[in-house]
Every structure is written in C-alpha cells, then in structure tokens.
Amino acid sequence: MSLKKVLGKLKTGTHSNPGSDDESSSGVKSPRAGSTANGGTASPKISGVFGHRASGEFKRASDTPASGPLSPADSGTSIDKSSKNESGIFHRRTDSPSRSNTFKAGLGHHRSGSTSSPIRAVKEKLHIGGDSSSDGDTPINRDGEPMSKNQLRKHEKQAQQEERRQEVLQKEKEIEKRKKDMEAQADAELTPEQKARYGNVPPNSYAAEWKREPRMNIVDFTANDVGKEVVFRARIHHLRKMSSKFVFFVLRQQLATIQAILVEHADISKYMLYWAEHLEAESVVLVKGVLQAPNNKQGGVTGTSIHDIEVSIHSLHVEAPVTEHLPFNVHEAEVTQAEVDDELSRPDNKEGHHRVRIADRTRLSNRVIDLRTTASQGIFRIQSGICNLFRSQLDSEGFIEIHTPKLQGGATESGASVFKVEYFGRGAFLAQSPQLAKQMCISADFGRVYEIGAVFRAENSNTYRHLTEYTGLDLEMSIDEHYHEVLRVLDRTFKNIFKGIYERYRPEIEVVKKHFPHEDLVWLDETPIIPFAEGIRMLNDSGWRDDDGNPLDENEDMGTRDEVQLGRVIKQKLGTDYYILDKFPTNARPFYAMPDPNDPNLTNSFDIFLRGQEILSGGQRIHDADMLLDKMNKLKVDPQTMEEYIQGFQWGAPPHGGGGIGLERILMLLLNLGNIRHASLFPRDPKSLPEKPVIKQLRHPEASTMHPPWEGQDRAAAGIDFQSIPKLIANYGDATNTSWLEPRTEIWRDPYTGAAVGFVPQDGFAITVGDPLCHPTQYLKTMTGYLKYIKKERNLKPLWLLVGREAEEVLATKFNWRTFSVVSEQRVDPARNPALHDSDVQRKVRHAEKEGVKITDYVIGNPVPGDMKKKVDARVEDWLKNRKGRQVHLTNIHPWQDEEHRQYHIAQTPDSTIAALVVMAQLSPDHGWQVKYSLDFPGAPSGSIEHVVLHAMKVVAQGGATNITFGGGASSKFTPGHNVKGTRVKVLSRAYQAIATELKLTNKTEFREKLGATDDPSYICYPPHGLGPLAIKAILNFFEDDD
Predict the structure, then answer these.
(1) What values do phi and psi take at 28, rounded to 5?
(2) pLDDT tens figures, 642-651
(3) C-alpha span between 546 and 509 (Å, rounded)
(4) Which of 420, 443, 593, 696 is the most exposed place for a label (fewest CB within 10 A)?
C-alpha cells in the first residue's frame, strides 16, 4: 500500500481517531464550516432499519431540531451505524451526539481549518519535516506510526491474499465472458445438425416420441466390435483436455470404465469441444459414438477396466448435470492406500504432490458418492448374491419364505437391547429378531421357514462390527431326531453361499480386493464342529489369557478378542477360516434355548464363525410350554408380554430349531472390509442419525396458554387472573412483542386460553404488531377471536405488522390476507461470533480495556441497586438532551421495565462514570434474547459500546442461548408473500424501492455484519383492499412521535 493511500485514512483536526477506510485515497479534505467529511453533521451512531424491532423509537432525518427532548429508540444500538441521511423513517440513534462516531467506518470528525495537500496535512499532524529522508516512504499503521516488522509481514500477507483473490475473480470473469462469447458465436455459426450434437437434455423430455433406440452396456464392448456405432448412458469419471482440438474422457457405468475421445473434425465443432471440456465430473451423459482400437504406444488403455477398445464420440448430451459442489468425486475415491504408499516410496516423490485416499468418515458422510465407486458397486452386488444364494439353497431344501412383523408387544430376547416405540398410546418394540414369529410359524405347521428382513438392536456399541439396524437371514425348522439337523442345513447353506460367490462374482471380488486387500476364504469339506469348552481349552493351551491375565472360563461366553484369537488358533491347527462351536453355556444364551439333557449348564446351541468372528447364532428352542414358562420366570421375563407366543406352545408345537445370520457381518468378514458400515447400504449405528432438536420448556409453565391456570374451570367464577403479559412474552414472544408493555398498547385476551394480542388504535385502524402470544397451534383460533372483536366491537380496520412465517401463513391461507416482506429480524448466534476474530472490533475493545473500562453484570435474579439505577437514569437524561429531530418508534426507553426478564451490563470508567449500557430482554426459548437497549453515553472512551455488547453476548451464550436478535432491518428488496401478484406487486415494489432509496433504509450496518447477522423475514399483512393511502398514513403516524 502506498504512503499516500495509507495517509488518506488519517484526518486532521482536534480528534486523533482514525477515519473511515472508505475515505477517498486522494487525501484528507477539509470540510466547510458546519459540515463533516461525509457531508453530514457529526452525528451519533445510528441503528439500522427497525434497529431493534419493537423496542424503541425511530428517528427521521432532520436538520431542524425538535421543540423539546425526544425519546430515543430503546433498542437502537449505537453499534449499528449509518450516516445522517440514513436516519430516516424506521431508523433510530442511540449513542452520544457529543462525540464523533468512531464505531461506524465512514463517519468523519469535525475539523477546522483548510489544508490544500493531504500529504502536507498529515505531515503537519505527525510533525514530519518537509525535507526528511526516506521515512516518508515507510508504510504507517492506522495510528499514524511506522509499521512494525510483524505489521509489515501481516500487511504483505494480506496484500498477497487480496491479489490472489482478485486474480481468481478476474479469471472467473474471463471464463464466464469467454463462455458467453463462445455460446453467442456457436449460435450464429453452427448449423442445426452441428448444434444437435451436444447440449443439455431437458429434464421433462422423457414422454416424447419413443424411438426404442438400443442402449448398450460398456462392459460388453470387445475388440471385435471395432467400427460399431454405440449409444449408451454413463457418468463422466474423469476428463482431461489435451489441446483445443482434443479432449480425453473416462466414462463409467457402475463397475466398468472406458476411454472416450472427442476430436474436432467435420460436424464436431470447436464450440462443442469448448462446451465438453467444461463439463463436471460425475455428470450423467448420453453418448453416441463409434468403437475404435486405441492408438497409443502401450497398445491398450491402462487407466480403465476396458483396455482394448475406446469410443470416438460423435454426440454428447448431458442428462443429469452436477449442480452442487462435490466433496470428492469417484475418480478421487478410487485411489487406494497401496497406490498412495507406492507414490510416497518413489525417490522422485515431492512432499504434498501425491494422491490422497479419501477417509472412511468422509466416504460414509457422503454415501451416495461413495456408493458409485467400483468397490462399493462390487460389495453390494456380492451382498445381493449372498441373499440370492441363501434363498435358492433353502428353497431347494423345502423351506418357504415368510415376512414377519417388526412391531412387537414385547422384547424378543431381553429388554436391555430393544427399541421402545409409541404405538397409539401403548408401548411397543422394534423386533430384535424374527425369532418368536418364526417359532409361531413352526407351531402353525409351516415345517421349514426362512426370512430376509430388518433387525433392530438398541445396543450403544460404536464398534467396527455392530449396527443398530441390520439385515437378518433367519431360518427355523422342525427337528426329527437331533438338533444337528439344523446345524447341517445351515452348514450346507453357508458352503453354497461361499462357492456361489467365488464362482459368480470373481470380477467384483477382484475390484474389492484393490481397496480391501485379503485372501480368499478357506473352508473344509467336513466342517469342524468343536464343543465350546474345547474351544476355550484350545485358547488357554495356546497361552491366551483374559484382560486380568487369567485363563478363560469354560462356562462364560467369549469376548470379541477371544473369538478372533481362537480363529487364528483354529486356522493354524486346522487350516480353515470357517468352523462351528457347539454346546454353549446356559448363561450365554436367551431364555428359549433348549438345555442340554445331560448337563443343565449347557444348551443345544451353536455359533458359526468366519475368520474368527461369529456370523450365526442358532440351536434348538424350547417347545414345551411349561418348561418355557419356568425358564422365563427364572430369567425374570414377564410372560404376559408374550402371551400370543406362549399360547402357540400351549396349543402344541413340534421340536424345532433355527438360526440367524447377520448379512452385513458375513459380507464384512468374507471381503475383509474392516468395518461393517462398508457392508451396509446406509449404515445405522448409535451416532448415524442426527440429533433431534431439544424440546424447549416454557420459562413460565404456570403461564401456559395450552394449559392455562384455570384449566377445567370457569376463570371468572374461580377468580383467577389472566397470565401476565411479561410472562407470556418470556414464554412465546419475540422482540416485537416487548412493545406491548407500552401504555399506548391495548391487549385483547382470549377468554378460554388467555392468549394475547396487542394493538394500538390509530386513525380508525387497529395497528397490530407481532405474533399472538400463545402456542403456534393456537394462532388460528386466537386470530379469529381477535379479528372478530376488532371489527365488531371496536369498529376498527385491522392491519398486522411484523409477524413471523407461521402467523403470516395463517393470515394468508385462512383469512385470504395479502402479505409481503420488506423487513427481517436480524439474528445472531452468540456461540458463533465472528466479531471475536475481527481485528477492527477487537482493536476497539482493547482500547476500551486500556482506558480502564470495566463491566458490571446484573443477571436475571440479581437486581440493579438503587444508587446504580440513579446513575444510569442520569446518564440516560444526558443522552436524551442531545437528541434531535422527530422520532420514529415502537417504544420509549424504559430501562427498568419488566426487570424480571432483563439482564443489565453496565460499562464504567475508572472514575465510576457510566460509559455504556446494554440491556438484554429475555424472549421465548425459541427466540432467545433481544438487545433491548445499547446506549453509548457522551464522553465514553472509544470502544466502550463494542466491549459491552460483545461481553453481553458472551454472558447469554454461556447460559446456553443460541439466538439473539438485534431487531428488524429493512430488506434489500420487496418480497411478495401470499395473495400479492401482478400489478400490485409492481406498484408496491416500485414504491418500496423509492422509499428505501430515498431514506437509505437498506444500508446494512457494519457491526451486525461482523456479528454474522442473518435475516429472518417478517411480514406486513393486510386484508383485501386494506392497504390504501389512509392505512399507510396510519402506519406512519403509529411509528412517529412529535412530542
């Protein structure tokens, strides 16, 4: 930055505070007497449009003082500033008129004298000699001092960042201009045939003429098809521009990829190439072309799954463009860890110049993109194959497929891991398995049944092998002589699955292996069936011990670590990844497991393992009703919750058994995926679903309108008062509702609920401001009663201003009112406050702290002492005396109004002079807090108001607040709501733009921007033909005060 440009920020005169960054770089200009650098009188800081909605008076711009002191805006914060010309209707000033505006950049200071040269003026100010050396070329900071080394480095870094940003913006502009130029040239130069070769397909063009054009799968293309014309749909996997006349594509269909080239020739125009090279990866395209042999030195294409053939594109149309930025594309997701490691190991590798593997968390958080990858495509084709092979094997063994309910009246196995749901006022559960329904089918003489369906487990297990919802492959069958009949059926089923997967899905397995390296599964013709106790002994004999260093107990179930280690031991001894453990102990099995006839501590049950982890749990069930009831009583399972289940056995059920397989578990282990979430289409675990919003409780439950204090009795007869308005505001109110505490506001009450609506009679109209004070579900009834009262009993014409979306929806849809928005509530999240990291704001705060400004807090429940109130009142009087011009307002300043719902933050200088005041008003739990007043008093040190406002926000944030409103501000445009259309929209829009431009209503305040304020639209609502000249005049008179 040049010295002259930096010096342009400094001002001569009696004040030393830095001026606006927006000031002309041509230097400091000396204003004429009675003026400021910005063309207006030195004015107080000015709030934005409706600076704090429903919380203060508003000031019109006027050079003529009023006849007496005028009430300021009670919430017109001095941190929201604009120039004098911005203080028109709906603007308020709330700072000290006696000192210069140091908060809002752009407002100048009073200066005297005249200096023809800005350089000379600054030199005089800084006492720089005219003949000094190169010091005049040294950059200076905002305080007029030479920059330190750190400041210079920071300055250079910022300049470089800005330069890069400008370069990017310029490049984007050039690209956009180039694009438009090329489109215009193409439209003028190309023939219809050339234009038809490329472009976007309209989304609603799939009901036109059905050409029955055959579409191909690229996986079927072979070298024998050279010269064949093909048409197919694919995604752009990757594209690379080789030259202005040559573009390479990699096109993808599920697992298969093929190279395609687009070359300028004949009807393939340069405009088509320019359009094509700017397509986004992952766009869905319709390709027509001719197959040809690749022309390269390698003799084949190495970067695709199809190596011996490529496509010469003749036409290309986008059927589904990518309209949102992708967190990653499939081409990037195809990078494997092995490829990354290989690149890192190369001697010519440069740090930061290698490819990166997309993390699992990122993949799972963007699941749709991840599912497009070849690995995911392979995984879920194999998953489909497992289900198909399971079905076909059991069908061949005489089973029938059933579909059991997932809503049950009792827990299937135990209450500890069950999801409870509300079922029409009664309790119900999501099925932990189809176990009970399967057994009931056996009791119903189905003989042999199986099911593939959802299973729910409410286990808070965030491990690599657990899900809260998974797909179960379950079977149940009657037993003739021995429960091992069930075991043998399951064994044959698993081996059929393994054999079929490796025979049918070898290409998919090889694709998956690139991302999840593993060896093929090994199993024996005769599956080992090992008693549980023997398996424990094998572990102990191998030297394995539990976490405490003790041998494992043969009568206790194994943990995951133990299972995995046993798998290693069996693989080493028996050479198999697949085996069965039989005769599990009783305490490791559910209540319905049949006890061993020779040892009551064991059961006729088994688990089947794959690569050292359980994939099935099964065995014989208890089919005798008395034995079942006895077992349930011993395990404290309430039989009444399973009456229908027990009845099936009381009516006679044959001996039977079965088992359940976790589909995702077997798929994970078969392919060595390492995390079961990769085997689930859209995985559900304890952390997968977003947290539901916290249900916010009323601040005053005793003042509810849903359950009023007189609920169930006549209020008047019982002598019970209506709920107080302050408590209703704290329960249901927004910033606008706080204006109802003003004496001029009349309150209508619903006689049944106590719901309230505030209005001000004005020139024959009922000016109603803000939402009704009640639960939103009561809006319709409340509004109906209020409007009937206004029209019939008061003979007033209703107008409703500054309502939220829900109230606007009721007025528009139920009463056919016209609605529009020109105002928005300006809200901030105090926990995410960018102003805490803004250098300008923090500089001002530090200045106030250096001046010794201290802040005293009086939170809710901690009243302000009487002597402090007197000091505040005196400072408010000082402030009021300096107010000038007519005021536009909703309420006056009443710091001690409704103290029960106010917090006070008072800034004082070392001599106990009050420098600034911020009053926070407690609103409903949904709306949080309002900056009711923010007053910067005369003579306060610079930065005081910034300091106290940020402090107040921090205090309410520590209390859990997530919403603060600074009040309303004018929107940048007129936005129609309901029932406003046609000519009326044009007229109202032009009228609003004219008023907004004249009064500068839309100038957004700097401080609110730095706080990250967002606009929450408020609506103006009026009945048909209800917004004529008299209504507009009534609204203006409502806001205006000439006292």
Answers:
(1) -90, 125
(2) 787 888 889 9
(3) 36
(4) 696
Q: Which amino acid is at 524?
A: L
Please report how many Cα atoms fall inside a 13 Å half-sphere around the Cα of residue 774, on the Cβ side: 27
Q: Which of 451, 614, 664, 1006 is flagged as catalytic?
A: 614
Respond yes or no: is residue 457 known to be catalytic: yes
Which residue, among 517, 441, 515, has the nearest Cα to 474 in the 3D structure?
Answer: 441
- Is 111 among the catalytic positions? no
Q: Which of 142, 197, 391, 465 is catalytic?
A: 465
Q: Which CATH architecture has domain 192-325?
A: Beta Barrel (2.40)
**Residue 318 phi/psi, 5° resolution?**
-85, 120
* DSSP structure class, residue 95: B
Of the listed ranges 63-72, 296-305, 408-417, the one predicted with least confidence: 63-72
Q: Is 176 a catalytic residue?
A: no
List b or e across 697-726, with b for residues whose CB sees 16 or more CB atoms inside 10 angstroms.
ebbbeebbbeebebeeeebeeeeeebbebb
Helices (H), 686-828: 715-718, 725-732, 779-788, 805-815
**Among candidate residues 314, 190, 230, the one with its CA nearest the CA of residue 264:** 314
How far apart are alpha carbons 747 and 901 in whole angstroms?
20
* Residues 761, 772: Cα–Cα separation, whole Å: 17
Least confident span in 63-67, 670-674, 1032-1036: 63-67
Predicted pLDDT of residue 478: 96
Q: Tell me the CA end-to-end span of the chain in Å, nearest whole number.
A: 51
568 is catalytic: no
Cα(700)–Cα(703) distance, integer angstroms: 5
One DSSP character per residue, 185-200 reads HHHHH--HHHHTTEEE
Average pLDDT, the chain: 81
- The token duo for 325 is 């930025």
Write the pLDDT tens digit of every residue in 11-52: 333 333 333 333 333 333 333 333 433 333 333 333 333 333
Q: Indicate the range of 151-160, 235-244, 754-763, 904-913 predicted with least confidence.
A: 151-160
Q: Is 60 an annotated catalytic residue?
A: no
Would you identify the CATH topology of the domain 377-678? BirA Bifunctional Protein; domain 2 (3.30.930)
Is residue 324 part of the annotated active site? The answer reads: no
Catalytic residue among 91, 109, 111, 457: 457
| DSSP notation for 386-435 | HHHHHHHHHHHTT-EE----SEESS-SS-GGG--EEEETTEEEEE-S-SH
**Which is catalytic among the residues 47, 83, 87, 617?**
617
Residues 680 and 467 sit within 8 Å (Cβ to Cβ) = yes
Q: List helix spans (H) across 912-1016.
A: 944-958, 983-999, 1006-1010
pTM higher than the cut 0.70: no
Of 264, 397, 459, 485, the catalytic one is 459
Picking from 772, 855, 826, the residue whose alpha carbon sits closest to that of residue 1005 is 826
Residue 73: per-residue pLDDT: 36
Give CA–CA dist 391/493, Å, rounded.
9
Is 951 tagged catalytic? no
**CATH number given to 830-962:** 3.40.630.30
Cβ-contact 90, 888 below 8 angstroms: yes
**Which one of the listed residues 52, 109, 252, 665 is annotated catalytic?**
665
Residue 932 identity (one-letter amino acid): K
Q: Which of 92, 252, 363, 466 is catalytic?
A: 466
